[in-house]
């Protein structure tokens, strides 16, 4: 797992806000509302079981998706389509954390020319944050907003800066011994050790 960013309680209200445009609902009709925007993306990344299920069911295949076979912390039926040819990787990522392993696998998936399924043992509840930071400009990250709908995040430099600032604040809050500096540099786009 390597280093872990643990979400402090004081940042939880910030993460309840939408980091993109909210599309109400969760079914195929919701995906249809955003279809035009999805077709023009450099990379399409989907975070969450329900969002990914409806995306694939609507005939839109993401470049990368992250699932944990759970919705609202309860097991989901194994319904995300596995007939598509995806490279699969599995990572451990506890609830309320972003592990170095998760970040590395998202980065590798985004750089891959293959479709990648990342199965998360634990929770993918915060995976949209590193996905936004690691996705190329003009990509789209989708994630579910429980009880409301799907959030579509268009990746721009200003969106990356917003999330980078948030992540730096979260890391700074817990980084008393500088153990997260390598992970911070990676999320900030500086790959130097």
Automatic annotation (TrEMBL):
<feature type="binding site">
    <location>
        <position position="68"/>
    </location>
    <ligand>
        <name>GTP</name>
    </ligand>
</feature>
<dbReference type="GO" id="GO:0015937">
    <property type="term" value="P:coenzyme A biosynthetic process"/>
</dbReference>
<comment type="function">
    <text>Catalyzes the GTP-dependent phosphorylation of the 3'-hydroxyl group of dephosphocoenzyme A to form coenzyme A (CoA).</text>
</comment>
<keyword id="KW-0173">Coenzyme A biosynthesis</keyword>
<comment type="pathway">
    <text>Cofactor biosynthesis; coenzyme A biosynthesis.</text>
</comment>
<feature type="binding site">
    <location>
        <position position="50"/>
    </location>
    <ligand>
        <name>GTP</name>
    </ligand>
</feature>
<protein>
    <recommendedName>
        <fullName>GTP-dependent dephospho-CoA kinase</fullName>
        <ecNumber>2.7.1.237</ecNumber>
    </recommendedName>
</protein>
<keyword id="KW-0808">Transferase</keyword>
<keyword id="KW-0175">Coiled coil</keyword>
<feature type="binding site">
    <location>
        <position position="49"/>
    </location>
    <ligand>
        <name>GTP</name>
    </ligand>
</feature>
<dbReference type="GO" id="GO:0005525">
    <property type="term" value="F:GTP binding"/>
</dbReference>
<comment type="similarity">
    <text>Belongs to the GTP-dependent DPCK family.</text>
</comment>
<feature type="coiled-coil region">
    <location>
        <begin position="156"/>
        <end position="193"/>
    </location>
</feature>
<feature type="binding site">
    <location>
        <position position="124"/>
    </location>
    <ligand>
        <name>GTP</name>
    </ligand>
</feature>
<dbReference type="InterPro" id="IPR007164">
    <property type="entry name" value="GTP-dep_dephospho-CoA_kin"/>
</dbReference>
<dbReference type="GO" id="GO:0016301">
    <property type="term" value="F:kinase activity"/>
</dbReference>
<keyword id="KW-0342">GTP-binding</keyword>
<keyword id="KW-0547">Nucleotide-binding</keyword>
<dbReference type="Pfam" id="PF04019">
    <property type="entry name" value="DUF359"/>
</dbReference>
<keyword id="KW-0418">Kinase</keyword>
